[in-house]
Amino acid sequence: MSSAQIEIQLIASLVAIACAIPGTFLVLRKMALISDAISHSILPGIVIGFFITHDLSSPLLIILAALSGVVTVILVEFIQKTGLVKEDTAIGLVFPALFSIGVILIAQNANDVHLDVDAVLLGELAFAPFDRLIINDFDLGPKSLWIIGVILSLTITLLIAFFKELKVSTFDAGLASALGFSPAVVHYGLMTVSSITTVGAFDAVGAVLVVALMIAPAATAYLLTNDLKKMLGLSVFFGVCCAIIGYWVAHALDASIAGSMTTVLGVLFLLVYLFAPNRGLFSVLYRQRQQRIEVSLLTFLLHLNNHSEESERHVNHLNEHINWQKVKSKSVLNLALNNNMIVIDNDIVSLTAKGKKFTNEAIDYIITNKNSEIENMKDRFFLFRG
Amino acid sequence: MDIFEYISLVFTDYTLRTITLGTAILGAICGMLGSFAVLRKQSLLGDAISHAALPGIAIAFLIMGAKNSNVLLLGALISGLIGTFWIKGIISKTHLKSDTALGLILSLFFGFGMLLLTFIQKQPNANQAGLDKYLFGQAATLVESDVWLMAIVTSICLFVLLLFWKEFKILLFDADYTKTLGFNTRFIDILITSFIVLAIVLGLQTVGVVLMSAMLLAPAAAARQWTNSLGIMVTLAAIFGASSGVIGTAISASHNNLSTGPVIVLVAAIFVLISFIFSPSRGLLFREIRFRKNRNDLQLHKTLSFMYNIAKDHENIAHPHAIKILNNFQGFTKKSLQKLEDKDYIIVKGNMWSMTEAGYHKAANLYNQQIDSPHE
User: Fold this and answer.
1) Between chains, do A254 and B115 touch, taking CB under 8 Å as contact?
2) Does domain A3-279 have CATH number 1.10.3470.10?
3) CATH pick for A282-384 out of 3.40.50.150, 2.40.50.430, 1.10.10.10, 3.30.70.920
């Protein structure tokens, strides 16, 4: 591994961490798309900043660009407050307009600006190590490493200092303002940090892919845990992993580093989406199937409880009376048998004492509107789940 | 170049005519379908889909090895649809919210698309140049067959829209009721979503991935301000969309270095701005005027009721009082007194005022609308 490679991976990892922290809060606050809007609408800020400074990594440019990110948020909120359109429409109206202004500004001044839209949107991490910060002929390392390092330490300081405020205002804005933290200050603080991070990251990974680095690790972590600290830790971990794996994938394919980092993030999200315990697609589908059978079982037991006559309790009668498919009635019957709820004698189904007790309790809960208690009851009675 | 010269050029110049027609049709179809997206609160779905279409374009190119735009669009359509249904899957099967799902699919698909595009660029295939026009769009690359394709898709879309108008409308405003009526909501939902995806994919070549969402949203958001009727809104949105296309093309054609996509989007944004401010029923300007008028009426009522409280203590309600005594309590102005006099509620003589019978009656029933209204 050459030193340039190490530097690239270091920058990528720092960007991933810097994005994952505000990203977690954006996802929790249901504002994930604001990051998309910001990442596009910083373009005019960058262009104007570039006209003034002629240096893509000057602090003034970063401040101007971050400012245009905050302006976006304010504009979106203003439009939303007028009540003329919904929030998502407001977002969708503001950022393409600002982005268009940026594109036109670039095109109009194409001759004297060495800035093209591709570079801003997509970034090129591979060139990052060549733009070095040199003070008094002393090489201090790549400029972007310094920029993102400063932003990251700012983010972490703010996170530690205001963790409590962030947490409360994220989960209960009403409580936060009752306790005297202004949700507006926290909100705009978060927006400012997100804007600065987006700007700082854009020349490493490009504006659009910042969105991926903000949302994807946080969303993946959210599928795995409900604990804010764990979620922060996991998303940082996922971000860094994907940054490093992504770098080597890009190395192998000789393709865009940012693109392959996102792809790795995508694959990771897909895996977690499918296989996460409790929240993954498969476990959700499994649970839904289980619940469907258990509800059928309950219906079946109630039916048995209501009928003493033998014709109503005949095994074959189930298909026609409750209108179940053969497979379904069979699995319900088996579940009931396994749990000792029923006995089958001569093809006549009757409730056991346990089955009676279960059914009576269930009726009690249903008529007193405590349906959620049935879940707990199932834990007590069932030997086998559906 | 003056405007008549330009108009004659539109009819004679092949390229300009093609582009103008193309952007107009695109604007119209986006406006129509965008209305549904906006009303279904799926405004940003367009943004997500247009980004999600990118890997489809790259994969179609990798498989076919040629730059036949119809094949690429088919690829875009498929990957756009996959993206859309994955978004729906995430929202319905996990506790992630719609904004997270949209942002995820948008950025992940786009990143994957970028990976493929850069991968293709390194391939020794001379055909690959120009794939990146789908990123930012190049209206100049439109040819007549593209316009024909757009026209055909638009007419199919219009036909389906008219055919399923009732279903679309009812699903839009009351999805649960639709289900109870026995409509197949899933089918209608898939139908309308697929058409939105189709419109987006068509527009990619012209305005590009990034700005496509604005094409979908802006005409619809503008049209929404002028009407409460779905039919009128869809028609208006189509008109707004088409006009932004035509005007945007005209502006960008008559200047150097102005790419068409961003200009069209800005023109559409101006439509939105004008609608937000000047729409008679919802617009900010008229709303502010109504607010002021209400506030003034309220002030007037306040003064009137204060006068009433003074007047009712006297046997003769028309007994004159000094204007001075109002001063301590009410911020009355000459104008408001004049207004009250115009309405015959009071009579001002010198620096004295006195209440009339009408004014007394009005003030007595100021807060009693049931008595008040039959008189009005």
Assistant:
1) no
2) yes
3) 1.10.10.10
